[in-house]
Amino acid sequence: MKHFHIYQRIKNRPTYFRCIHPDCKHYLEKELVIGRRAECPYCHDDYVIQRRDLNNKTPHCSNCIAPGYENNTKTTKMKPKDKLRVTKLQTLFEDKVSKFLEGVER
Ligand SMILES: [Zn+2]
Ligand SMILES: [Zn+2]
User: Fold this and answer.
1) Burial class for 27, CB neighbours closer than 10 Å (0-12, 13-18, 19+)
2) Whether 40 contacts 47, CB under 8 Å
3) Distance, CA 44 to ligand 2 centroid (Å)?
4) What global pTM score does this model have?
5) Residues of the chain with pLDDT under 70
């Protein structure tokens, strides 16, 4: 299968990047990935990997904004898991406050 690789950092070997195509077993040392043509995992256009792109777990082209960056600008948007955690904390806190208030009233 001929394609531009979509690189992703290998979990157990952080200085290596592998291709995430299901049928591709390609992987490469970080320094050798720089300057290579690759496919963007988001828009599927090809682009040349720069050193700074490799700070991402999944490098992508400069037209695509990193999902992490997007989260930073939209502060109201929360991951469902985080939302649940906040709700849980709020419930815990309200419980304590109401118990405290009950104690004061008595
Ligand atoms: Zn590949
Ligand atoms: Zn892209």
Assistant:
1) middle
2) yes
3) 6
4) 0.61
5) 1, 66-78, 104-106
Give residue 82's pLDDT. 76
Q: Which ligand is nearest to the CA of 36?
A: 1
What's the CA-to-centroid distance between 67 and ligand 1, angstroms? Answer: 22
Ligand closest to the CA atom of residue 46: 2
Task: Report how far residue 102's alpha carbon sits from residue 76's, in angstroms, rounded to the nearest whole number.
Answer: 33
Report the amino acid identity of residue 14.
P
- The candidate with the shortest Cα–Cα distance to 39, out of 31, 96, 24, is 24
CA dist list (Å): 87 to 3, 68, 74, 78, 98: 45, 22, 19, 12, 16
pLDDT tens digits along 86-98? 777 777 777 777 7
The neighbourhood of ligand 2, an ion, using CB within 5 A, equals 40, 42-43, 61, 63-64
Q: Which ligand is nearest to the CA of 44?
A: 2
CA distances from 1 to 5, 7, 36 (A): 11, 16, 18
